[in-house]
Each structure stands twice: as C-alpha cells, then as structure tokens.
Amino acid sequence: MITRAKSPRVIPGFGLSMGITLGFLGVIVLIPLASIVLTSSGLGIKGFFKVITGRRILAGIRVSFLCTFIAALINAVFGMTLAWVLVRYKFPFKRFVDGLIELPFALPTAVAGISLTAVYSSRSFIGMFFERVGINIAYTRIGITIALVFITIPFVVRTIQPVLEKLDPQYEEAAAILGAGRARIFFQIVFPEILPALLTGFGLAFARGLGEYGSVVFIAGNRPFQTEIAPLLIMNKLQQYDYQGATAIALVMLVASFGILLLINTVQIYYGKFIKG
Amino acid sequence: MALKNEDGSITRALLITASLLFLFIMLILPLCIVLYIALRSGWETYKNTVTDFYTLKALQLTLSSTLVAVVVNTLFGLFAAWAITKFSFRGKKFLTTMIDVPFAISPVIAGLIFILTFGRIGWAHEWLDSYNINIVFAVPGIILAVIFVTFPFVARELIPVLNAQGSDEEEAAALMGANGFVIFFRVTLPNIKWALLYGVILCTARAMGEFGAVSVLSGHLRGKTNTLPLHVEILYNEYKYSQAFAVSSILVIMAVIILIARNIVEYKGKKELGL
After folding, report:
1. What is the CATH number of the domain that holds A158?
2. Complex ipTM, two decimals?
C-alpha cells in the first residue's frame, strides 16, 4: 500500500487518455451545450418567461409531462411483473421473451412510430375494436402514452432484473414457514428490496420519455393544445427560425431532465447508506 | 401451506399470461404489421422500393454515419474508461457524470445545440465558413448528431467492468516493463472484450435508428442528407404507406440482427464470467 501511495501512476497513459477524453468531451458535448446558455442569455429573463408562459407552450409541456408520467407508471407495473416472471418462473420460449425486451431500443423510433400508428389507428383490427367501445387511440393522448410505453419498456425491467436475481430466497422461505401469505411476502420482503431499482428505472424511463420525439410524432396527430409534445414545439420553433424560442423551451426540458437524474442519484445514495446501515 | 401453493400456481399463470400479452401487443404486433403493410402491395412494389436509388443512398448514409459514430465512440470509450478506472484524480465523479449527459438530453435538443453552434446564427459559423465547411444541413452535421446521441454507450459498458477488475494485473505488467499498448492489448483487452462488443452493439443500434437529432440537422435533401429513418418519414408523409413500411422493413431486419447479436454477446460474456 505504501509503495502504491508513493507512486500512484505506475500504469502509463494518463496524460494521453485524459487528454483524448477531455478533448472529445469538450468538442462533442460541452462546447455545443454551452451554446444553449449563450443563446438564452441573449434572450434575457423577461424574454425567457414570455416564451415559456405562452399558452401553446405550457399546454405542450403539460402534455409531455402527463403522458410520460402515465407511461412510466404503466411500465413500473408491467416492468416489475416482467422482471418477476423472467427471474422466478420457467416457461417455454423464456430466452426468446427475455431477448425481446430490448427491441424498443434496437428498433428505430420512426419505425416504431409508424407501426404503432398502424396498429392502433381506426383502420386496423385493434383500433376498430377500441373505437366501437368509444376509445380513440391514435392521434390522441392515449396514443402518445402508448408510444412512450413502447419506448421505455426496457428501463424498469432491466434495472429490477439483476436485483431480483441476487435476492436471497431464504428470507422469503423463512416468511413462508412463519405463515406469511404470498402477497404479504411480496410486499413486505421483496418489494422493499427492489424499490430503489424500481425508482431508478421509473426515473430513467421518465427522462427518456420526456425527450422522445420520433416514435411520438406519428401517432400524436400534433394538434396544438391537445396532442403537441414539448420536443415537437422545439422542432416547430426551429422550422420558423425562432432559435431563441426553441432554446427557451429546450432549457426548461434540460432542467427537468437534469432534475430527474439528480433525483435518481439521490435515491441511490440514500438507499446505499440505508442498506449499509 | 396448501393455500399458498394453490395461490402460487394461479398467480404464476396470471402473471405469465399478462406479461406475454403485454409484450405481444406492444412489441410483436407492431413488428408484424410492418412486414404485412410492406408486402401488401405485392412483392414487385416491395422490391422496387427497397432497391430504389434514394433508398439505397439513404441506406448508404445510415451505414456510413453509424460506422463513423461507432469508431469514434469506441476510441473515446476506451480512452475514457482507461483514464477513469486506472488512475485516481480529482473530479472523477464529475467527469463520469459529464460523459452520461447526452443520454439525458432529448434528441431534438441535441440537434438544436449543434444548430446554435454551427448554424447560421452560431458563433462558430463565420469561422467555419471561411474554411468552406458546412455542418448544419449537411452530412457532417448528421454524423455529429449521431456521435452525440451515442456518446456514452461504449464508455458506460467498459467503466463498471474495468472498475470491478481493478488494476493489479496492469500494474504488474507495467512494473515488469511493458509499455502502454502492450499492457492494453495483452492484459486489459482480453478481460473487457465482451463488454466492449456489447457497447459497440448498443452504439450501433442507437446510431442507425437516430431520428430526432438527425431530423433537426439534416435539411432532408433526398439522396444527399437523408438517412433511412428520415426516408421513412418522407414516404409516410407523402401517404406512400407501402413504400414507407417497405423501407422500415430494412430497419426492422437490421434491428433483429442487432438484437440477436446482443443476446449472443451477453450469453457468451456471462458464460466466460461463470467459468
């Protein structure tokens, strides 16, 4: 230990690897990102609030948050179920099902968008069924939510799965021997263990869904005040060459995503300390 | 106990059915409908669309921008992971967080920041213009966008693996006089090859399908700055549904190949760890 403390850099390449890392990070991420701050400072605080308190903008931001929140919630339920089924049960084609979870990640979002629209539009079998019941899916907020559910499926499943795999079954066995029912075992023993992973997965899904554009624009219908999402509002401003307006909306979205990431980190640190005691 | 077992088997069946139904409706059905609509107007139309000049041009741009992004991000990922895991320095946590930033940013905003930097109103525009370099609404912009959105992928996969392995082997090699490249290729690389491959696959998947960021920066010039996902959008908005889905089917096939590769790599990586 003493020798290591005296010469911490036995391994060569610190200067080179650090230089390349910082160089790439600067050119590709940090410098372009700084342009947002530069442009919005040209807008001023008054101008910034004038843009983002516009009725259409506020409506878009509301739709984005609402639909993403519901989608993340749906995925929290199904993600937990899927993780449980994949870890605890054996059934035919399990490996295939497990491999399928990443499909939303591998499938280009534009393809996901147009195929979901085709599945849920009133011309298809499923769309017709729901229309008869009185529910329109495509070109409504339900459609937006479905697209966001599709896109964020992997997040909750893949964060809970490893935790469930590592969970020692002996606590559950002990509880069962002591006479606890299945539901009680799940909610009092398993659920607290997977809660941090669930919150992390929920947060990741929420952050991803909030920024999602490609899969949503096709199924949304994009009617102002109704089914316009925040990323589309940025796109519209850009097409009108209103760069400052676009930047103002982008700034709101950026603050929201960073806030979510900060929350995820806090959750992990809190539970990390909690578990260590 | 009898109650417990009975309850268990019913919940079991219920949960499995719910999961499979959910995946069928959300994942399988959209995939099937792509192929169904693509082939609805007949094989001839499908073949003509897929081998169309603009489709092939778009495919070419998608493949080449993906390749550049993967090469750049693999190089970056290797150096970044090396710097972060083999040395101790101040601000390491901050640097790791910064690398993850592109993951948290909406693709549309990713496109926007390059317009604000290199576009007509960007501060770097005049300087680039004097060298006759066009980034926005041109191929370099598309490549930059794809690099940006896939920036963390390789580094993210490598850092935890390298952290878990520690640097004892590398230190021993260095003390015995091996230089950096020998250490990397002989000692480190064999340990991280599956994680590296995994990162490359994820990077490829995201790069070939990127839509939002590329859409902002492309300018949608057919045959010039059109990638396959953008081509799908154009055809779709022209109400050429069969063609749009035919082009989509190329991307579906690519996605399925990536998915299979991902599973093979994950399986082999786990198997090697188990041995």
Report:
1. 1.10.3720.10
2. 0.89
